[in-house]
Design brief:
The protein contains 6 helices and 42 strands.
Length: about 700
């Protein structure tokens, strides 16, 4: 198979310089400033057209009263290859199709969209699980057989970026995968029904230990991601390291179970019955939605008295869940008892050691999962033989950002899944819960020591805060944005291959956001609250947040530390169950959340990607920005550009080990002033020139062996 060429990207302006004296580059600061101002608002992201036509089903009443645990849990099938490519790669054919799906025995089947791994099957939701091995490429042929137009039960919102009409558009993102740009599911690379695309997945595990990942695939088309995923377009993709898993002796085969947690709104007082969601708003707050696991509402699962491994995904569009496993003993009166969850893995790999939830120290009362996040857990049912009411429930912390005061966890009291330990032991259980998974894991603090730059990304809404009580407004369609920029504005996050970077997510809103970065995984470093923090009162804006927003508006921003809580409790390390490779991080309200990452060096990854909030309604409303992975600078090469985030000139120098580089600036080519000197490391040296306010600016660097 011939892989399509990646479209050429705009080239950087680079100049070569000799061994002793680096060349200088004139910078037309005035012209660039004018261009930046003229291009501050692109043609799509900042425009709010007239509201869409009223949904004729919007007055329908949702189902809110159903019997629990009457449907058996469905296990998504494993996808089987359709053929083998000339290169020897397994080829999967996955079709996007419609289906009539029964969510509950007491409800009629309703239309959904799903993925099918067979020409003889309708669309399934969740889709078939793809099993892949690290380092062994596969090809997936995505075949779009969906309707041409969005139906009334899931209308596209034409106020969203890139959504001019009701034409169905789709693209598939392998979430958590190290994917080439053409095959990453970039939101602008969508294709229409009737089109087939071939995606090559290299299955490269970029995590430090490369011991396997819990990935998932889902639709990612611009402006309609929430629609398409809510309709059912999601499924698991497991990237495995068979030798590692065998050595760990995790539960396997029938005792490894994928679980996709979602919530859905079923309408039966319309004809025909349908799914329905008010997705035409930035923050739909779907608190009445029914709890769905693997396409069934509050199902049951019969298990043996042994250990099971569960690969869990929060596939909800908006809802954060806090899982706890509980049962009632035979005491009189019955006593609610926790059944331990042993978390062994995060989004993209494994923890150093299992973490028990709920934890006895109180910091982890539940297994909290924001949308898009995954966990790998083991449950030991050995001592619970005969128990028929062990319930995995959503028990988010009181006062949590995930549950407004007075609102239900869902209309069925929070229950998601019931376990019944009633099956006989089919064979001896030789699996285990290891005491240690990794002896010497890479830590965020260790990786941060090699960080070459820190990027700050603000999480905002537009119009701007800090009016007390201002929240996402479903009536006026406020935009959720990053760095006060729309999606189609120029790229501002443009790392070079091999760079280690620290990203600071400054959450200036009273809502938590699950931040997701494409292409790679990261490690959570820490979190620091803004000063004057007073809990989760939704009407309160901390003084540090209000002052930051005001100073930013006035162009008088101080050092970030001036706005942060400097007390001993102001900065906290990550939770114990976050200390593994992740690609979704919980960016808490009014808090700076820091992650550290290393960009890959393989040239197949050079090109455009995105990062965004994984609350899909926010993502569709412009809380997404482009990023670009650039090639490394060759040694002794200088590059300049304007940093739109810091409003300063940036200078990049490709370095060699054993050489000291002194970077100098001048307005007139006569007087030169050093703006930074550093020993070369073989990586790119990054400097800023805050004094660059002249119409012309020149740069050079001298080398000292």
């Amino acid at each position: 198979m011939t892989i399509p060429a990646i479209p050429p990207l705009p080239s950087c302006h680079r100049s070569r310089f000799p061994k002793a004296l680096l060349g200088f580059i004139p910078i037309l600061g005035l012209l660039l400033t004018v261009w930046l101002r003229a291009g501050a608002h692109g043609p799509g992201g900042g425009h709010t057209p007239e509201p869409s036509a009223p949904n004729p089903l919007i007055s329908a009443k949702p189902v809110t009263n159903l019997s629990l645990f009457v449907a058996e849990l469905l296990i998504p099938p494993t996808a089987t290859p359709a053929s083998v490519s000339p290169e020897g790669y397994l080829v999967y054919e996955i079709r996007m199709r419609t289906n009539l799906h029964p969510f509950h025995p007491d409800l009629p089947a309703v239309p959904i969209w799903g993925y099918s791994h067979s020409p003889d099957l309708p669309g399934l939701s969740p889709g078939p699980t793809i099993q892949a091995t690290g380092g062994v490429p596969v090809i997936v042929r995505w075949i779009n057989e969906l309707p041409d137009q969005y139906p009334d039960w899931i209308p596209a919102d034409t106020r969203n970026h890139g959504v001019p009409n009701q034409d169905v558009r789709n693209v598939v993102h392998l979430h958590g995968g190290a994917n080439r740009p053409l095959f990453d599911g970039h939101p602008t690379y969508w294709f229409r029904p009737g089109v087939t695309t071939n995606y090559l997945y290299d299955n490269i595990d970029l995590s430090h230990d490369a011991d396997g990942e819990t990935l998932w695939y889902h639709d990612h088309a611009i402006g309609v991601t929430a629609n398409n995923v809510y309709a059912g377009l999601a499924g698991f993709y497991f990237l495995r390291n068979p030798e590692f898993e065998a050595a760990m002796r995790f539960p396997a085969g029938d005792f490894e179970v994928p679980l996709v947690f979602q919530d859905r709104d079923i309408q039966i007082d319309v004809h025909p019955p349908t799914l329905l969601s008010d997705l035409a708003s930035t923050n739909a707050n779907p608190w009445h939605y029914l709890p769905v696991v693997n396409g069934r509402i509050a199902p049951y699962f019969e298990v043996e008295p042994r250990r099971y491994r569960f690969r869990i995904l929060n596939g909800c569009n908006f809802r954060t869940i806090g899982l706890v496993l509980q049962t009632q003993t035979d005491a009189s009166p019955p006593v609610q008892t926790n059944v331990p969850l042993y978390q062994i893995g995060t989004d993209d790999g494994f923890l150093p050691a299992p973490v028990v939830i709920p934890a006895t120290h109180g910091f982890l009362p539940t297994l909290r999962l924001m949308p898009g996040a995954r966990v790998d857990v083991i449950v030991d049912f050995t001592d619970w033989n005969g128990f028929t009411n062990i319930v995995l429930a959503n028990d988010v912390e009181p006062g949590s950002f995930a549950e407004p005061p007075g609102e239900p966890r869902n209309v069925l009291g929070g229950a998601f899944l019931q376990f019944r330990v009633v099956k006989p032991l089919s064979e001896p259980d030789t699996s285990r819960i290891p005491d240690v998974i990794h002896e010497n894991p890479l830590t965020a603090a260790d990786l941060a020591q090699r960080s070459v730059r820190t990027r700050r990304i603000t999480l905002d809404i537009r119009p701007e805060q800090p009016a007390p009580g201002l929240k996402f407004d479903t009536d006026h369609h406020l935009f959720a944005i990053l760095n006060m920029m729309n999606f189609d504005e120029p790229v501002t996050e443009n790392p070079r291959a091999g760079d280690v970077e620290t990203w600071e997510f400054l959450n200036l809103t009273g809502v938590a956001h699950p931040m997701h970065v494409h292409l790679l995984d990261f490690l959570v470093l820490n979190r620091t609250r803004f000063r004057d923090f007073q809990g989760s009162d939704p009407t309160y804006v901390p003084g540090g947040v209000a002052n930051y927003i005001l100073d930013r508006r006035n162009g008088t921003l101080k050092d970030l530390s001036a706005y942060l809580d400097a007390t001993a409790s102001g900065t906290r390390p990550p939770q114990a169950n976050e200390m593994g490779p992740k690609d979704v991080v919980h960016a808490a309200p009014w808090t700076v959340t820091r992650v550290v990452m290393q960009w890959p060096t393989n040239e197949i990854f050079f090109g455009p990607y995105v990062y965004h909030c994984h609350i899909l309604d926010h993502e569709d409303n412009d809380m997404m920005r482009p990023l670009e992975l650039r090639p490394p600078l060759p040694p002794d090469t200088l590059w300049t550009g304007f940093d739109r985030i810091d409003n300063s000139w940036s200078i990049e120098v490709g370095t060699r080990s054993g050489v000291t580089y002194d970077v100098q600036a001048s307005d007139d080519l006569v007087t030169w002033q050093s703006i930074g000197s550093q020993a070369g490391t073989g990586m790119t040296l990054y400097l800023t020139d805050p004094a660059a306010d002249a119409p012309f600016r020149f740069y050079r660097a001298t080398l000292t062996p």
